[in-house]
Structure formats: structure tokens, C-alpha cells
Give the backbone structure.
Amino acid sequence: MYISLIQEALTLAGYDPGPVDGIAGPRTVFAIKAFQSDRGLNPDGMVGPLTHAALFSSPQKVLTTPAASCDPKQLSPHFHQNEFRCCCQGRYCNGFPAEMHTALISGLEQIRNSFNRPLIITSGVRCQTRNREVGGIVHSKHLIGHAADCYIPGVSVDTLADAARQAGLGVIIYDDEGFCHLEI
Ligand SMILES: [Zn+2]
């Protein structure tokens, strides 16, 4: 595990330790030595405290941001397109008869961050057939990616609804079912 982290850090720093396999083979040792001599450290191929500090000096900046922003289906820091997939399970559509609207996603992101807890999407986009099947209204905003049903575990629907209104979203509370329909 630790070797894998070193290999990742070396790769990010522009060195070639070979595949991230957790094994300190010749390529990994060679990359460590190259890194050490570039940084003015003793090139012994061993990751001691100084080399460790140099490798992981700014790991947050390098390690966390790109992964999320590289996936085009990652709609925002906390929401992935798959969470909004039509619930017909591929029977009537390919899962995305419409794109999720960015204004809805940014509202959801704002709510999610204000509670700092996972916000669970129970229904995102729906195709016509599935919408009829679940008894959705004819011009439901679910059809065009303008609505999502959701809840936050441990947060009441009323509290969630307040936060949604503050985020500028339209709200219908489904008290008995324990979720809110949010829309733009
Ligand atoms: Zn569908």
C-alpha cells in the first residue's frame, strides 16, 4: 500500500516508477533515485523521512482535484451523472433521455454542502414510458432533467425543503414517503 502511494506520488511528480503495483521493483527504485538526486537528497533509492516529506509536500493540491474534474460525467464535486439515471433500468431508454440541467445540479450541490452530508437522489431523469408507469404528471420536470427527488439521511424533509428554497429551487414535500421533489 505504502509503495503504491509512493509510485503514485512519483508519477504525479513526473517520474516513471512503472505501473502502480505496490512492488518496489527496479523501475520504482530508479525513479526514487532520480527524484532524490533532482531534489538534492542522498540518492539511495530508499524512502526515508526527507524523501517522504519531499514526495508528499503538497499532496492535497495534486491528488484530490483532478480525479473529479477529469470525468465528464462528474456533474459537480458531489454528484455523478449515474445518480440521476432513469429508473426504468434500460427497459425503455438508455438511462438519459435528457441531460440534467446545470442549475438544478448547482442547487443540489449547494444544499449538500450546507448540511455537509450525503444527499441521496431517489429519482432523477425519467423517460416518458417510465414516467407514466410511476404515475408522474404528463409535463413532469423529471422528463427534461429539471427535477430530482431526494432526501438526506437524518435530516427532516421540512429542513431539507427550507434549504432547497434558499438555494432557489422549487419544492414539493412528500412527507409520508420521506423525500422532497426539487425542481428549477
Ligand atoms: Zn427510462
In short: The CA atoms of residues 5 and 22 lie 8 Å apart. DSSP finds seven helices and six strands in the chain.
